[in-house]
Design a protein that fits this description.
alpha/beta, FAD/NAD(P)-binding domain, 2 domains, seven-stranded mixed β-sheet, five-stranded parallel β-sheet, 19 strands, binds flavin-adenine dinucleotide
Length: 314
């Protein structure tokens, strides 16, 4: 069986960017991808300098072409397990196995959405999470923020930057503090107490938010906080677990822990993009993939140099 220098698991922005740097360093690289990038529901990618507005599928197709153009290989499949046997063996759902000297894990994350009828169907369209990804597209609209955690208090202020008509639905979030109530009032954000029952959709567009009891508040867009879970279940045989990542006391999601060059605590296994940092956007996931590729190439060079020195002195 062919042994690749590097197997990249996940061919989104992080994986393809890492693969590109590695093939350009004359490394043999296999990218395995199952075609379910996180932003698949979105029509366009924003905030990717020089490619603002590109459809996600087009960006990833271009990336694949660039990797293949330098001799990289890309296959479609889902990795189910990875184990160490000197080098690494990864197994796909169809039973195919591949061997590599290093692994770059770039499988992204899963957004677990609030369980509100009508919400999942509108995800990536007029149900949003990220003001930087789609905020401009809903500017000046009637925007709601569905609060399921304290994160909503930050999110609502970010969306207030984009519209004068912003409503916070307290839903299942903890009661705001006195200071937060003051901040909401000072910024002209209206607050609706009570639980949301479902979203109202007409002609394929969000029209409102229905509360328990039947009251409907007209809204054109709704921001939510998804629970962000690293797609890393297949790493457990390698002894690699995910941990909760926090910022300012708020749990952002789960992630594989990495150092600045993408190295995990398992030697030879690197990770980048949303699987290691739920905050990463497309451009920063690509940048992290590039850094991890640098870490892997340097790690391989170290191993090859040690072997060359040993061979020379024997
Ligand atoms: C609706 C929506 C819209 C967004 N819009 C924007 C935007 O406009 N601009 C922006 O910068 N960011 C946007 N984001 C965030 C963006 O999607 C992420 O920052 C980006 O996808 C992270 O890249 P990644 O390479 O880490 O992960 P992904 O892009 O998710 O790529 C991971 C890849 O790994 C593959 N994979 C996963 N598990 C396996 C497995 N076991 N075996 C094989 N392959 C596997 C998947 O098929 C996928 O292709 C948006 C997110 C969402 C949810």
């Amino acid at each position: 069986m062919k042994k690749y220098d590097v197997i990249v698991i996940g061919g989104g922005a992080a994986g393809l960017s890492g693969a590109l740097a590695l093939v350009r360093s004359r490394r043999s690289v296999l990218v395995i991808d199952d075609g379910t990038p996180r932003n698949a529901q979105a029509e366009h990618v924003h905030n990717y300098l020089t490619r603002d507005g590109v459809p996600p599928a087009e960006l990833y197709a271009l990336g694949r072409q660039e990797v293949i153009g330098y001799g990289g290989e890309v296959v479609t499949g889902t990795v189910t397990t990875a184990r160490r046997d000197g080098d690494f063996t990864v197994e796909l759902a169809d039973g195919t196995t591949y061997q590599g000297r290093r692994l770059l894990v770039t499988t992204g994350l899963t957004d677990v959405l609030p369980d509100v009828p009508g919400l999942a169907e509108r995800w990536g369209k007029d149900v949003l999470h990220c003001p930087y990804c789609h905020g401009w597209e809903v500017r000046d609209q009637a925007i709601g923020v569905l609060a399921t955690s304290v994160m909503a208090l930050h999110q609502v202020q970010l969306f207030r930057q984009l519209s004068d008509d912003v409503t916070l639905f307290l839903h299942t979030a903890p009661e705001p503090t006195d200071e937060q109530w003051e901040e909401l009032a000072a910024r002209g954000i209206s607050v609706v107490e009570g639980k949301v029952e479902q979203l109202e959709v007409e002609d394929g567009r969000l029209t409102g938010v229905r509360l328990e009891g039947g009251r409907v508040i007209p809204r054109q867009a709704l921001a939510v906080q998804s629970a962000m879970r690293a797609r890393a279940g297949f790493l457990t045989d390698l002894g690699l677990e995910t941990t909760e990542l926090e910022a300012n006391g708020i749990v952002l999601g789960t992630a594989v822990q990495v150092d600045a060059m993408g190295a995990t605590q398992v030697p030879g296994v690197f990770a980048a993009g949303n699987v290691a940092d739920p905050r990463a956007q497309v451009v920063s996931a690509a940048a992290a993939g590039l850094m991890a590729a640098g870490g892997i190439n340097f790690d391989l060079i170290g191993e090859e140099t040690r072997l060359a020195v040993a061979a020379r002195s024997s």
